[in-house]
Amino acid sequence: MKVSIKEKILRVCSEKIKQKGEGVQVSFYAFFANKNNDPALLADVARWWIVEHQLNHFEKATKIHAMVKALPDNYFHHSVFEHGFNHLTLSVADLDRSLSFYCDLLGFQGEVRWNSGAYLSYRDCWLCLSLVKVPVVEGKSLGEARLNQDYTHYAFSYDLETIQSVRQKEAFKTVTVWQENTSEGDSLYLNDPDGHKLELHAGSLSTRLVSLKEKPYEGLVWLS
């Protein structure tokens, strides 16, 4: 997206708040003229609003103003879905077991599979499952995925309703929850069948930065 749209969103939100108070709501259409003369930009803003943040059609102008103001200018030079993080590859010991976990429990879409792996997707996330190459003796595998023992984990964007639906599935009863949520945004921390630490998170960097202004971490320093 263009830097100019950041300035326009902030200006429009400020004007509406000044005119109608802090309870006024806006939709992403509020930042565009009735005539759609820049469909690519409209699509970018709609994708940021709907896909990345799962916002309602109407949201408080104060909320949108805070979220957009927290974003760095370089965010608006390009689409975060075209530049930056590309895909995630996880080593797995049993491809069928992992496909069932990610597709049946977490709702990923299976795209393709082959002898040693599979490609899955969830919204704009591209996940590769790579089968661990291990020796087999008497029909039993002698290896497993090597895991980090620290806080390293992989977070996927989910809305709260979908997180709740995951919790309610029968298969969730056998899943290990490795941490309870204590930070901004709803999160579900769970292990996959190979012990990879995952997080299903209903939030974003911008909402996290907004929350840190109200409740900063110990020793927090803003870098920009």
CATH level-4 homologous superfamily of the largest domain? 2,3-Dihydroxybiphenyl 1,2-Dioxygenase, domain 1
Supply the number of helical segments: 6
N- to C-terminal separation? 19 Å
Describe the sheet with the most strands. Answer: 4 strands, mixed
Measured by DSSP, the beta-strand proportion falls in: 15-25%
What is the overall shape?
elongated
Tell me how many strands there are: 12
| Structural class determined from secondary elements | alpha+beta
The percent of residues in helical segments reads 25-40%
Which helices and strands, and how do they pair?
Layout: H1 3-20, E1 25-26, H2 39-52, E2 59-60, H3 61-69, E3 88-92, H4 95-105, E4 109-114, E5 117-122, E6 125-131, E7 136-137, E8 140-141, E9 154-157, H5 160-168, E10 177-179, E11 186-191, E12 197-202, H6 205-214
Parallel strand pairs: 3-6, 9-12
Antiparallel strand pairs: 1-2, 4-5, 5-6, 7-8, 10-11, 11-12
Helix pairs in contact: 1-3
TL;DR of this structure?
The protein has 224 residues and is an alpha+beta fold.
Write up this protein.
This protein has 224 residues and is an alpha+beta fold. The protein has 2 domains: 3-77; 88-206, Roll (2,3-Dihydroxybiphenyl 1,2-Dioxygenase, domain 1), CATH 3.10.180. It is built from 6 helices and 12 strands. The strands form 4 sheets. The chain has a 4-stranded mixed beta sheet, with helices on one face. The protein has a 4-stranded mixed beta sheet with strand order 9-12-11-10, with no helix packed on it. Strands 1-2 form a two-stranded antiparallel ribbon. A hairpin with a 5-residue loop joins β11 (186-191) and β12 (197-202). The protein is elongated. The relative contact order is 0.12. Mean pLDDT is 83; it is low at 78-82.
